[in-house]
Amino acid sequence: MVRKLQVGVSGLGRMGARHALHFLERTPRADLAAAFDPDEKTLAWARKCLVPFGTTLYTNYEDFLQHPGLEAVVVAGITTQHATQAVRAIESDKHVLCEKPLSTSIGVCEHVLNVAQTKPGLTVMCGFSRRFDASYRDAARRVRAGDIGRPAIVRSQTCDKHRDDDYFVHYAKFSGGIFVDANIHDIDLALWYFGQDSVVKSVTAVGINARLPDLEQYGDVDNGVGIVEFYGGKIAYFYASRTMATGQTDTTEIIGTHGKIVVNGNPQQNLVELHENSGIRREVPQTYYDRFEHAFVTESNEFTECVLDGKKAPFELAGAVAAVKIASALQKSLVTGKKIEYNEAGEEVVAEKPRL
Amino acid sequence: MVRKLQVGVSGLGRMGARHALHFLERTPRADLAAAFDPDEKTLAWARKCLVPFGTTLYTNYEDFLQHPGLEAVVVAGITTQHATQAVRAIESDKHVLCEKPLSTSIGVCEHVLNVAQTKPGLTVMCGFSRRFDASYRDAARRVRAGDIGRPAIVRSQTCDKHRDDDYFVHYAKFSGGIFVDANIHDIDLALWYFGQDSVVKSVTAVGINARLPDLEQYGDVDNGVGIVEFYGGKIAYFYASRTMATGQTDTTEIIGTHGKIVVNGNPQQNLVELHENSGIRREVPQTYYDRFEHAFVTESNEFTECVLDGKKAPFELAGAVAAVKIASALQKSLVTGKKIEYNEAGEEVVAEKPRL
Amino acid sequence: MVRKLQVGVSGLGRMGARHALHFLERTPRADLAAAFDPDEKTLAWARKCLVPFGTTLYTNYEDFLQHPGLEAVVVAGITTQHATQAVRAIESDKHVLCEKPLSTSIGVCEHVLNVAQTKPGLTVMCGFSRRFDASYRDAARRVRAGDIGRPAIVRSQTCDKHRDDDYFVHYAKFSGGIFVDANIHDIDLALWYFGQDSVVKSVTAVGINARLPDLEQYGDVDNGVGIVEFYGGKIAYFYASRTMATGQTDTTEIIGTHGKIVVNGNPQQNLVELHENSGIRREVPQTYYDRFEHAFVTESNEFTECVLDGKKAPFELAGAVAAVKIASALQKSLVTGKKIEYNEAGEEVVAEKPRL
Amino acid sequence: MVRKLQVGVSGLGRMGARHALHFLERTPRADLAAAFDPDEKTLAWARKCLVPFGTTLYTNYEDFLQHPGLEAVVVAGITTQHATQAVRAIESDKHVLCEKPLSTSIGVCEHVLNVAQTKPGLTVMCGFSRRFDASYRDAARRVRAGDIGRPAIVRSQTCDKHRDDDYFVHYAKFSGGIFVDANIHDIDLALWYFGQDSVVKSVTAVGINARLPDLEQYGDVDNGVGIVEFYGGKIAYFYASRTMATGQTDTTEIIGTHGKIVVNGNPQQNLVELHENSGIRREVPQTYYDRFEHAFVTESNEFTECVLDGKKAPFELAGAVAAVKIASALQKSLVTGKKIEYNEAGEEVVAEKPRL
Question: What is the CATH number assigned to the segment(s) D134-289+322-341?
Fold first, then answer.
C-alpha cells in the first residue's frame, strides 16, 4: 500500500474547514488523520463532515499533536495563535503549513523562524496562497526567464468586496491592520518577483476610512496606499481596500525594463459574458477563496509532496518574516504619517537630531 | 485660393443630414454647395443648419443637378431612389457617392454600373462605410500582407439594437430584406477579404421572427443566418439581427490557414469600464452611426480626395453589384427554403429533372 | 467506514488515462478498482501509476467486468468500441459513463439507449464534458431563469489547434467526421439551451479542407459550417475547425429575445497578460483538455454522486442519441451538398418527384 | 456669411503643427489666420501646408500678435516660452489656448493666472487634452451623477513607450521632470474627479532610472511613483514611465465608496485582435497623440465655441496652477526623498525643530 502523509488541521473555522476538506478530498497523497478545534459548533460540523471519513477530533492542542502517527500540521486558526501552535508543532517534530501571517509581531515571527531552523529536516511553510496560483506562477516563470528584462516596478493590490456587516471592523482587532492582513500577499509577490534578498530603502503609507469609520479605533483604514523602495532601483507600490463594490479584485503588474506582465487585470468569475440592455457585463469572484480555490488545493498537494518526497519547499520561511517586516513598516508609516528610511544593512535610519 | 470640391447632398433624412454635415464641417477640401430634399420639415432644419454656411437648397432634383459649379453628388435619400438619382447625376457628369445599396434589384444595379462605365472619368462609389473604418482597413492590410496565410473562412454579423417601435417593420417594405439591408456590409467585407473576383458556389439562408412577427408580411425576418460557399475553398457565413438587447454589435472574423483576425469581437462605446455591485460592465454603441461615425467622415474625405486628385476609388463599383447579387440570393434562399447552387460561370444550377 | 464507488476504467489511452487519474486522485467518493486495456505500452504506464494505489489491471474486457465488487464502468477507449462495451457493461449491471459519441451510427446509438432503458436502476451517462463546465452551467442557469427571454439563436464552435502531424487525418478514419466528432458538443449545447425536445426542421452543412487535403479521402473536412433549424423559431449554427493557429477556441453564444450570453468569447490560458513590444498578448489553451480539465473532474464526481446517492443524471442519455442524429445529418449534408428537411414528426422530407 | 474665429498658432513643432492643422481642417468655426515660428525648417513645412489655405506666417511673435483681425492664440511652442507668450497674448486682448504646463515654475504660473484675471472677458484655457476625451468625460459625468458614491481614491498613470534614442533625456532639460511633464495630466484628472477645491495634505514621490541613467543629471527619473493625500479622506496615487515596451498606456481608476470607474484599463490601437500561433494579440497606441487625437480636435472646437458663443470654459485656469503646484511638490519629494506635508490652509508644514 502506498504511504500517505498523516496530516492534522488545527482550527476549523472558515479557512481551516477548507484546508481540512482539501486534505481530506483533494490531496490524494494525504490522509486527514486529525483535527483540532475547541469550539463546539465547529466540532459539530467536523463530526458530520470529517469523522465519518476517518478523522479524529481533538479539543486540546497538545493531545492533537500526540495523535498517533501524525506527521504534519496545518495551522489555520486565528492569527494570534499561529506562532504558538507552529512552534509547538515544530518542537513536536511535525512538518508545518502555517496560514499567513506567522504573527503580526516581527519578534514573534523571528522566533518561529529560529525554532524552525533548529529542525532543518522539517518542512515549515507559510501559506502564501498566491505562490501556488497558476497565473502568478506563470508570471514568475516569465520573470525568471528574463522575458521582461530586469523587473523594476511592481504594482499590486488586494481588494475585498464591501460587506454590509461589521466583519472587517471586528477582524481589525487582531488582523494587524490592512497592510499586514491584505497587502502582505502583495509584498510577498514583490519579494518573489524582485528576489527574496531585496533590501528595503524606504516605506511610506497613507490611508482613509471611506465606509468603515469604526476602523479608526484600531488604527486601521479601509483603503490604504503604500510605496516600498528597494535598493538597486526597484519600487513596489500597493493598494488595499475593504470597500470594493464589485468583488475580490486582486491585480498585480510586474514592470521590467523590457516588458510588463499583468496578472488578473480583468477580474472575472468565469468565462461568461452577459449582453444586456445596459451593456455587456461579467461577474467577478466575491471572495478571496472564489479567486484562489485552486491555488489552495495546489498548496495542500505540494506541501504533501515536499514532505513525502523530501523536496525543498517552493519558497523560504524567511521570506514570510521579511514580508511581515515590510507590512509592519507600512502600518507604522500609516499611523505615524512618516516616511521610514533604511540603510543598506536594513536598519531604520532615524533623522539626525540637529546639532546644538 | 485652394480649389474645393463643390458637393451636393441629395436627401437630408437621418443619414443624409449626417453626410451633409460631414461635407460641411469635417471635409476640409470640400464645400457643401447644394442640397436637395422635397420634405418641408427637413428643409426647415437645412435652412437653419446649412444655408447660413453657404449651401443652396433645392426641392427639385434636376434643378439641384444644375446648381452652378456642382461637381459631385452624394445620393443619400431613400433606397428606392438611389439608382435613379445616381444615374441622372452620372449623366449630368457629376461624380457620385451613393449610399448602399445601389438598388435592391440586381437588374437596376447593373444598369447603374453600365451607365457609370460610360463615364470612366467620373468617380462613382457605393458607400460601404466599413471600407473606411480603421479596424477593417487594418484587417485588410494584414490579410493582403499574408499575415493569416490564405483567407478561408469569413464570419460576419450585423446586429442592430432592438427598438420598441415599429421602425424595422416599416423599413422592411423597401429595404429588400435583412440580408440585402444589413448583411450586405458583411458580404462586401467577404468580397474584400476573399478577393472581388470570388465566384459563388452556393447560398443558403434561414431566419426567424423572434420579436417582430409583423415582418413576415414582407417576407422578412428579424434574425437571419446564411452561408455563402465560394469556389476555391472559401466559405463566408453571416448573421443579422434586429433584436439585440445591448446595441450595435457588428463583428467580423477572417480565418486564414495560418491565423485569424477578429474585428470588434468585444463591442464597446468607449474606453470606460464600470465596476458595480453586479459586476463589471461596459456600454456599447447604440446605433450603426455610433459605431461608424469616423468611417463616414473618412469616406467623405477620401471621396473628395479621389475626385480632386484624380485617384482611383478605393474599391470598384462592380463589387457593389456583386454584393447585391449575393444578398438577393440569400434573401431568395430564405423565402424559398432552398439552397441555391451556381456553376463556375456564375449561373444558377437548376436541379436536373429526373429522366422519364 | 464510508462507502466508495468501485469504478473501473476501460481504455487507458490519452483521455482514458485522464479519467483513470480523475477517479483515482480527484474523486474522493470513488475508488479506481480496476482498469482494462489490451495494449502493453499503456499497461506499463498503469502498472507504475495505478497499480500501486490499488487498481487491478485487465487485458480482457469480460474479465474486467467480473472484477469483484465493480459497480461502475467508464468507457473511454476508441470510439468504435464505445457502444459494444457500454452495452456489455449495462448487461452486467454496471453503471456506465461513456465517452462521447456513443457511436457514429444512429442505429447503434439507439441500441445502446434501448439496452439502457431495460435497466432503469442504472446510471448511464454520455460524457458531454461541457455539461459539467462552470461557465456553460452558469449560462444554462441564466437561460432557465429567463434572463435572456426565449432562446432563439445558438452559435457555437469547436476549434482545435492546427497540428503539423497527421493526427487529424488518421483520426478521421473512425471519428465519424468533423460534425460528429467536434460539433457534437455544440449540438448538445444547443439541445441543452433550446430544450431536449426541440424538433429539427432542416440541416445544411458545407466545408473545406484548408490545410489537410488528405481528409478528403474520408469525406471529411478541416473546416465546416452548418446550420440547424428547429421548429418553433429556433436556429443553431455551428463552426468546427482543425486548423486554428492559436489553440483551442470553443465559443458559444445563446441569443434570446431579450439578451445574449457568451461563453468563452475571449479564450485565455490563465489570467496573465503580456505587454510586449508588439502589443498586448495572452496565451490560450492548446488542447481540449487544457480548456475543460475541471469539467472532466466535475463529471467524475457527479457521476459518482448520482450512483451513490441514487440521484437522477444531470441529463438524459436520449439526448446523446439526438445529438448524434443531428451531427450525422450535418455530415450527410456536407457530403451530398444538399439541405435536408424534416417534418414535425422528425421524418426526413424527400423532395417530391415531379409528376409525369 | 458666418463669422469664423480668427486663430493664430504660435509654435509649429510636433504638437504645434497638429494644432495648426486641427484649426485649419477640423474646426469648422475657425480660420487659421496666422502662425508664428522662428525656425526655417518648420516654416518650409508651413509654406507648403498652411499658406495655400490662407494662413499668414510670422517669424516675430509681436508681429504675429498684430495680425489684422486675429482674435485667439494657441501657444504651442516650447514649454519655457508658454508663459511669456500667453501673457503677451492676453495683454494684446487675445483669447488664449495654452499647451500644458503654463510653466514649470509655480510663480510664473501664478503670474499668468493674475494677468488672465485682469481680462475676465477673455477665454484663457490650459490644454489638458484628457478633459476633452470622450471616455474621461463619460467618467466625469458618472462621478458627478453619484454613480460611484463619494470618490475616495484615484489611481492614474501616464506611460510612454520606450524610445531607443535620447529624446527623453534631452527633453528632461526643460520638461520640469516626469511628474510635471507626464503626471500633470493625472493630477489634473484627480482635481477634476475630486473637485478643484481639494486641499493637499501630503505629497510623497520616489523614482528610479530603469533604462535612462542619463536622466539623473537633470534630477529626473524614467519611472516614478507618487502619492497625494487630500484633506477630507481622498487619496490620489500616480505612476509615470518613459520605458513601456508596448506603447502609450495611460490608465485611470476612480474609486468611490460605492463603485469604481476604469478609463482605458485595456489599451488598444483599434478594434482588431490577432489570433496567432503565440496567442491572441492586440496592438496599442504608440504615442500620446495616437491615443488622444480626437480629444485634441474636440479641444480646438470647444475653445472656438467658448469664444464665439461667450461660453464659460469647461474648466478654470486656476486648476492648471493647482496641478503644477502638486506636480512640483512631487518632483521636490522625489529629489529630496522627503514626504511634504501641508496644513489645511495649503501651507507647507516644516518639521518642528526640537526644543533645546
Answer: 3.30.360.10
